[in-house]
Specification:
- It is a single chain.
- By secondary structure, the protein is mainly alpha-helical.
- It has a domain at 585-835: SGNH hydrolase (Rossmann fold, 3-Layer(aba) Sandwich), CATH 3.40.50.1110.
- 56% of the residues lie in helices and 5% in strands.
- α26 (635-645) packs across α33 (819-835).
């Protein structure tokens, strides 16, 4: 086949329009369900604002598409998809993406030999790969690469394959719709949709049934993502927290359960495509219930399995059949898994910009390949139990399958935990925490399979003597499916309404509120950076807002600035690890970052405290520093200005901001010892959050790993007691220090209090929530106990953000408070300080006198 011109006409032998009131009613019923789903998406903040906007656009796009004549639906979908790219990515980035994509598609249809087109595509790909590497500047944002890669890295392979094997010329609208699918702008990690299926399944059955299936899958995707959040918030563990058999089991289970995020997103994507008539199959099918490794391979990421089977397995298998059935199966399967490993690394490069060549990654795919090969050979000899269908089975057959499911699930959990670890050595170290318990797994898994094979043998004998008749499964009617799905959507929506969950016990309320917010869990903000899929999704955590924030510029000022990698930061060879450079400025779209003469992000102050001045020193991390907002918008600056403007007396207030990115207790203690006392403060405010104990241990672990001097004898003693040194892996250092976290935190707090009291300084501990947290007074005692025991005066700011929705308080690209969030924090603290508000755990510092309103 030498040429494959694109045809402008793309009509087929399909119905031309919606016919009758009955079909109109069905379409309106589907639109109503989609509207309810949008309410759920908004209430639970599924994905991000871009996805919410896409969902609203999809509702209107669906209604227009459903009532168009059939010949116009493909052109409309192509136009809708291109418009979505421009709206989500911005005009400039969107046009560059479309231009690059059209050039690649054009190469596929050049009137030259097919081999020449392949060569040109490879050359174009290599050119783009070179530009994808760091160090090359492009006229488009670097954050465009994941979307570009997602659209073309695998679809071009399928498209060229089908061009070679199909006689029918593809239509222009169909081709544009295939490459620029509307949901792709919000989802760089995208299912690999087969082009032949994409074109042949367009309205290949009754349209309302296709639409309703799409609604069902979108709803299922929402449920998967909510379950993912529950697992992530309440079940996932950082590897450093694994210190025994039970935490190890929890870690292994949670890492596999986190895959719910991928299956959830894929259901959302394909569900949206079904709303435009593309009758695609489901992407995942009950993969946690796989009864064998080949069954697992068939159920999880079905589109990927279909892709590698089509491109690699079948061509290789049919070429090798003359070597014998067994050899053909083994070699074809091994090639498929080698291709899977290589293509996952290829995918990683396009989406993350780095190479993924690690032993534990290769070992995961090699182990899974051997298990699937063994399973395939077993099925070739004894036949395969069809588990994707529903049929009646004897008790023995059910028991056999249950044991197989258990064995497969446990084995996959173990393999997945290895794949999701930072390194193979880390994963092996985890098993060291379980002692000899690992022998239990080496006995349990073979025992489960042995029992399953024995029961399966009995079940096969029973088949020879008779089998219970298969159950008759009746298809649910359309309106019954609508009613069932609508009821489920409404129940989920109501569960997310404050008026519904607020009267419930506080624990339940906290669970619902935590699931509603798409944020990092309380244990380890780095957890999402562990696994393969989590890393790819983290790249799109904030979709286009993140992409634009990271590198787009306005008037030459980037919106997102990593201060610790800028001219405003200098490294130090001590536990501080770095400090702000005095008298430097950084311009960002978030505002000016100005560092004063003392290395503080603040206005200039005299070192000698002026007369009639009440001076407060503020310690904290990036929240106190004010990442993402201008100097005058940081809450301490807002508070200082208000205290002075409302002041009735001649007393002046100064709040000196010693906050810095990544500055936690041990660093703050060093700065207090070394620098702060010279400013003669009257009070020290220590800004604290949940998990400060873990962050403190992480700081100490990094100091040990980097061989930095530890300035306190107590910490040296803890290091000795924990038996850690710089030659150990950082993971092991953290794990061994973790049991000392409460002790270290209390020691640090006590030392701050002792220093303050020795110099007549008032120590105040500010318990500050993240903007997305909604905590309750009686639930924060576990965080305040150490501060109270050490002698701090504790001020709780847990209700500072109560009156606003979390998404209105955070920056577009991360969870730091925006200017409005900082203002709410300043206003709340102002009220506490000036009106001497008493809570069950706070007492306000005196010497704050302002006008009474």
């Amino acid at each position: 086949m030498s040429t494959t011109p694109l045809s402008i006409s793309d009509s087929g032998d399909r119905p031309t329009a919606v016919s009758g009131l009955g079909e109109t009613a069905k379409i309106l019923g589907i639109a109503l369900q989609l509207g309810l789903l949008i309410l759920v998406i908004k209430a639970f903040r599924i994905q991000d604002n871009d996805f919410l906007h896409l969902s609203v656009l999809t509702l209107f796009g669906f209604l227009i598409n459903a009532f168009l004549p059939m010949r116009l639906r493909l052109p409309f979908f192509a136009l809708f998809s291109l418009s979505t790219i421009l709206l989500v990515l911005g005009i400039s980035n969107g046009l560059w993406l479309i231009a690059i994509g059209m050039a690649l598609i054009g190469i596929c249809h050049l009137p030259i030999a097919f081999s020449a087109r392949i060569a040109m595509i490879l050359a174009a790909g290599i050119t783009l790969i070179i530009f994808r590497l760091d160090g090359f500047t492009t006229p488009w944002s670097r954050t465009l690469w994941p979307i570009l890669g997602s659209m073309f890295m695998f679809r071009l392979i399928i498209y060229l394959y089908d061009l070679k094997h199909e006689s029918r010329s593809p239509g222009l609208a169909r081709t544009l719709g295939y490459f620029f699918m509307a949901p792709n702008a919000c989802f760089p990690l995208f299912p690999i949709i087969d082009y032949k299926r994409f074109q042949r399944n367009h309205y290949n059955e009754d349209a309302p049934n296709i639409y309703q299936r799409g609604i069902k899958w979108i709803f299922r995707g929402v449920i998967h993502l909510l379950l993912y959040r529950f697992v992530y918030q309440y079940f996932a563990l950082d590897p450093a927290q694994v210190d025994g058999v039970v935490p190890l089991l929890q870690y292994c289970l949670a890492t596999f359960m986190l895959y719910l995020q991928v299956s959830g997103q894929f259901h959302l994507i394909v569900g949206m495509l079904l709303l435009f008539g593309f009758n695609l199959p489901e992407t995942h099918h009950l993969y946690y219930l796989a009864s064998s490794f080949t069954d697992f391979w068939r159920r999880i990421n079905i589109y990927w399995k279909d892709f590698v089977m089509k491109i690699f397995y079948y061509p290789v298998y049919f070429r090798l059949r003359n070597l014998g059935e067994t050899r053909a199966i083994v070699l074809s399967t091994l090639i498929v898994f080698f291709a899977t490993w290589f293509l996952h690394a290829y995918q990683w490069f396009w989406l993350r910009g780095t190479l993924l060549l690690e032993w534990h990654d290769a070992l995961f795919w090699a182990a899974l390949a051997m298990l699937v090969v063994g399973n395939s050979l077993y099925e070739t000899r004894y036949g395969r139990e069809r588990t994707l269908g529903r049929r009646a089975r004897s008790f023995t057959a059910r028991a056999s399958q249950a044991l197989s499911v258990a064995g497969t699930f446990i084995t996959i959990c173990l393999l997945w935990s290895m794949w999701s670890s930072d390194s193979l050595s880390q994963w092996i170290s985890l098993w060291g925490t379980a002692g000899w318990a690992w022998l239990g797994f080496s006995i349990l898994i073979p025992s489960l399979y042995a029992a399953s094979f024995w029961l399966g043998h009995l079940a096969r004998k029973q088949k020879q003597t008779g089998e219970p008749p298969a159950r008759v499964i009746r298809k649910a009617g359309f309106w019954r499916m609508v009613a069932t799905t609508s009821l489920g959507i409404v129940l989920v929506y109501l569960a997310g309404r404050p008026e519904v969950y607020s009267p419930l016990p506080q624990t339940t309320t906290n669970v619902v509120m935590n699931i509603q917010r798409p944020t990092l869990n309380a244990r380890d903000s780095a957890l999402l950076e562990r696994g393969y899929y989590e890393n790819l999704i983290a790249a799109n955590r904030h979709s286009t807002e993140f992409w634009n924030a990271q590198s787009m510029a306005q008037n030459g000022a980037p919106l997102f600035v990593n201060v610790m990698k800028s001219k405003a930061w200098q490294r130090t060879n001590d536990m501080l690890n770095g400090e702000l450079v005095p008298n430097t400025e950084l311009e960002t779209r978030g505002g000016l970052i100005a560092i004063n003469q003392w290395g503080m992000r603040d206005k200039p102050y005299e070192k000698t405290k002026p007369a009639h001045t009440y001076r407060i020193v503020l310690f904290g991390d990036s929240h106190a520093f004010g990442s993402g907002v201008a100097n005058h918008e940081v809450f301490e600056a807002v508070l200082e200005q208000r205290l002075n403007s409302d002041n009735d007396s001649s007393l002046k207030y100064e709040i000196m901001n010693f906050g810095a990115p990544g500055s936690f207790l041990l660093r703050q203690l060093m700065i207090l010892d070394d620098r702060v006392l010279a400013f003669k403060p009257d009070a020290v405010f220590l800004m604290a959050h949940r998990r400060d104990d873990v962050r403190t241990v992480e700081d100490l672990a990094k100091a040990v790993k980097n061989g930095l001097p530890v300035p306190y004898e107590y910490l040296s003693t803890v290091i000795e007691r924990a038996g850690v040194n710089k030659n150990m892996a950082l993971f092991n250092i953290k794990r061994r220090l973790m049991p000392f976290r409460d002790e270290i935190l209390l020691w640090g707090y006590q030392r701050v209090v002792d220093i303050c009291r020795a110099h007549g300084i008032r120590p105040v501990w500010l318990f500050t929530p993240m903007p997305y947290e909604r905590l309750h007074d009686r639930n924060i005692s576990e965080y305040t106990t150490a501060a109270q025991t050490a002698g701090f005066e504790v001020i709780s700011l847990v209700h500072a953000y109560d009156e606003e929705e979390p998404y209105l308080l955070t920056l577009p690209w991360d969870n730091h408070p925006n200017a409005h969030g900082h203002k709410l924090l300043a206003d709340y603290l102002y009220e506490v300080l000036t009106r001497e508000r008493k809570t069950n755990i706070s007492k306000s510092p005196p010497a704050i006198q302002v006008k009474r309103q």
